[in-house]
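phosphoglycerate mutase (2,3-diphosphoglycerate-dependent)
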Amino acid sequence: MATTAMSHQSIVSFISLRFKINSSLIHTSKKRNFCKIEAMTSQTETSVSYNNNNNTLLSPSKNIPETSLKKTNEAALILIRHGESLWNEKNLFTGCVDVPLTEKGVEEAIEAGKRISNIPVDVIFTSSLIRAQMTAMLAMIQHRRKKVPIILHDENEQAKTWSQVFSEETKNQSIPVIPAWQLNERMYGELQGLNKQETAERYGKQQVHEWRRSYDIPPPKGESLEMCAERAVAYFEDNIEPMLAAGKNVMIAAHGNSLRSIIMYLDKLTSQEVISLELSTGIPLLYIFKDGKFMKRGSPVGPTEPGVYAYTKGLAQYRQKLEAESEVICS
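Tokens:
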């Protein structure tokens, strides 16, 4: 295909091999003590720690407030539901089963990247599932800054040590990608792997509709949307919102239900409102975090559409900077 230099099979094989998920990460924990993130920002690599008792930004080397981080009253938040997966295509319940994107899903991820190519991104959060990680990686390849997304591995000390980058120049041309199981799709329990149509015929359309669309009714041995929201929103509050408050522009590539949960929090939706919320695969949504509040800006429609960038002065200036850099390179 014209949109990609390698076949769908080779993309899936490469990314699946490169970013295997450590199954030991899939466990439940409700501790909210510390979040330490090794973040390679646009200027330099910065180790950031957040004390969750008061969200005070702490220096990695001293237990005092950090003053060297970029401070601003505005930051961009991009939400992207992963592109079509192989089980989406087959109409199977996927949940937390780790399946890759289809060729259409790859194209959707690339198109999503084009739509956000003029929006600043300092750090990326994904689920621990390959379809979300593929979407994030393929999308960022389209960004005009041409920074390389690098998945951070902290499964154990060896993973941390072996994945270190020792070139400051390389770090400055990289974007950290932080996988988190808390952003995974909701676990569909005994429905995972079943055909949706056949399941409706077996259990009845009304029962399956309740499992899929109710807020607090889980499928057999699975999670309800309420349970999914508990872990996803808690992670967002503890790890992502402090990043935005520090002025970091964040992209989240995740799943229909984990993103619906986060949008419920951002837009202050009721449980009845969120169950009717539909998210298309591969379509980015933009929010602006300003003065402690989230403002929904819809979906960027393409790199040549100026409207979405005119919503804020910061985005407009960022776009102008990209245009200026492009002119210098071309000249």
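The chain has one domain: 23-330.
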